[in-house]
UniProtKB/TrEMBL annotation:
Residues 1-26 have a biased composition (Gly residues). Keywords: Metal-binding, Repeat, Zinc, Zinc-finger. Residues 126-136 have a biased composition (Low complexity). CDD domains: DnaJ, DnaJ_C, DnaJ_zf. This is J domain-containing protein. Residues 34-95 form the J domain. The lineage of its organism: Eukaryota, Sar, Stramenopiles, Ochrophyta, Bacillariophyta. InterPro entries: DnaJ_C, DnaJ_domain, DnaJ_domain_CS, DNJA1/2-like, HSP40/DnaJ_pept-bd, HSP_DnaJ_Cys-rich_dom, HSP_DnaJ_Cys-rich_dom_sf, J_dom_sf. It comes from Discostella pseudostelligera. The keyword Metal-binding applies. GO terms for molecular function: zinc ion binding. Gene3D superfamilies: DnaJ domain (1.10.287.110), Heat shock protein DnaJ, cysteine-rich domain (2.10.230.10), Urease metallochaperone UreE, N-terminal domain (2.60.260.20). Residues 1-33, 121-140, 390-418 are annotated as: Disordered.
Length: 418
């Protein structure tokens, strides 16, 4: 069979499978309402109403949005016929059979139906491939953190292909979008293959395009984030017999010199000297809306190298509600975190008299150990790297180390004791 099951079940007069259902006279009681019921419109519905109904239903039932694929195909197929004046007239008179029979010959009829009723993914328009909508275009839109904070409207010019004049039926495929190739495999054996028409790219129509320049006002909402999209529905290139796709602008957040963002929260990094960490600091920053904030430590507030937790977490403090506005609710803002780095003096940077003074002033000075220098060893420390911790001592010889290896592969001797 050329096409798989059709979504309208077995309720159709005359059947649809197999061969030869070409243009016979209408049978007694043909069903000419099913397609209208599928789109939930009246038989007298206008073209506009049919389109409206289709748009609404196809959105609801789109498989990408969790809709039922079968139902979706049914809706697309019904719209395919009812949106075309000729086909609709045929359908009203003769039911589904009339649409296939009069429109094209027997072989083509199967093709037509496979197209409408989902021939297992081989149909040229792919009833399973989604709504009859042209391809959408995504444009990245780089936006500064300031603009994401304050919101902004950007005017962007796009060029789109617009159909000029009336599209004409493709002469190559006679408006089928696909070409049926009959090949002889051997004596008495032929095979039929269907391939997309290359003259019209499977669109069944040929048309002239012109380029149209269009200025779009792109409204960047307060609080938008990386990856958020601003959609201009149906603004992509025009495609014959399809709804044009969308133009999407995808937000790309530019890096900021001062602020880092996560969700609605902002983070700044502040390096303070040991003096500032102990004795206080004030720091003027410009916020994303241009306000100047002076961040001041409270009297006696001590900035530490890390949090007093088991994990060595960086030392942070927070300014509530000074983060980013939330998208859709800009009055609710995130928080502004300040992460500190305490810069200690370098070796030998402090003169002896300063050290003596500090020793007297700071709490918990060193209490010298009492010992006889002749009986103990006095030692000093070298610089070190914690990543090398555990790697001290003599290297184990490679033979001993690999004896217990399960894969027992012959490995080259890597280590040698020197
Ligand atoms: Zn063609």
């Amino acid at each position: 069979m050329f096409f798989g099951g059709h979504p309208f079940g077995g309720g159709m007069p005359g059947g649809m499978g197999g061969s030869g259902h070409g243009g016979g006279p209408p049978r007694g009681d043909v069903d000419t309402t099913k397609l209208y019921e599928t789109l939930e419109v009246d038989k007298s519905a206008s073209k506009k109403d049919i389109r409206k109904a289709y748009m609404k239903l196809s959105r609801t039932h789109h498989p990408d949005k969790g809709g039922d694929e079968h139902k979706f195909k049914e809706i697309s197929a019904a719209y395919e016929i009812l949106s075309d004046d000729d086909k609709r007239a045929q359908y009203d008179k003769y039911g589904l059979e009339g649409v296939s029979g009069d429109d094209v010959g027997a072989a083509g009829g199967e093709d037509l139906f496979s197209m409408f009723f989902g021939g297992g993914g081989r149909s040229r328009r792919g009833a399973s491939s989604g709504p009859r909508k042209g391809p959408s275009v995504n444009h990245p839109l780089k936006v500064s953190l300031e603009d994401l904070y304050n919101g902004k409207t950007v005017k962007l010019a796009v060029n789109r292909k617009v159909i000029q004049g009336t599209p004409t039926e493709c002469t190559r495929c006679k408006g089928q979008g696909a070409i049926l190739e009959v090949r002889q495999l051997g004596p008495g054996m032929i095979t039929q293959m269907q391939r997309t028409c290359d003259a019209c790219n499977g669109q069944a129509q040929q048309c002239q395009y012109k380029s149209e320049r269009k200025v779009l006002e792109v409204h960047v909402e307060k609080g938008m984030r990386e990856g958020d999209r601003i959609t201009f529905s149906g603004m992509s290139d025009e495609v014959p017999k399809m709804e044009p796709g969308d133009i999407n602008f995808i937000i790309q957040e530019k890096d900021h010199d001062l602020f880092k963002r996560k969700g609605a929260d902002l983070l700044v990094v502040k390096e303070v000297s040991l003096n500032q960490a102990l004795c206080g600091f004030s720091w003027k920053i410009q916020h994303l809306d241009g306000r100047e904030l002076v961040i001041k430590s409270r009297p006696g507030e001590v900035i530490k190298p890390e949090m007093n937790t088991k994990e060595a977490l960086p030392f942070v403090k927070m300014l509530p509600d000074e983060g980013m506005p939330s998208k859709g609710n800009p009055f609710v803002r995130g928080n502004l975190y300040v992460m500190f780095r305490v810069k200690f003096p370098e070796d030998n940077e402090l003169p002896t008299e300063v050290v003596e003074a500090i020793r007297k002033l700071l709490p918990e000075p060193d209490v010298p150990e009492e010992y006889d220098p002749m009986e103990v060893e006095e030692v000093h420390l070298n610089p070190a790297d914690l990543r090398l911790f555990g790697k001290g001592g003599a290297h184990v010889s490679s033979n001993e180390a690999h004896d217990e290896d399960e894969d027992g592969g012959a490995r080259p001797v890597q280590c040698q004791q020197s």
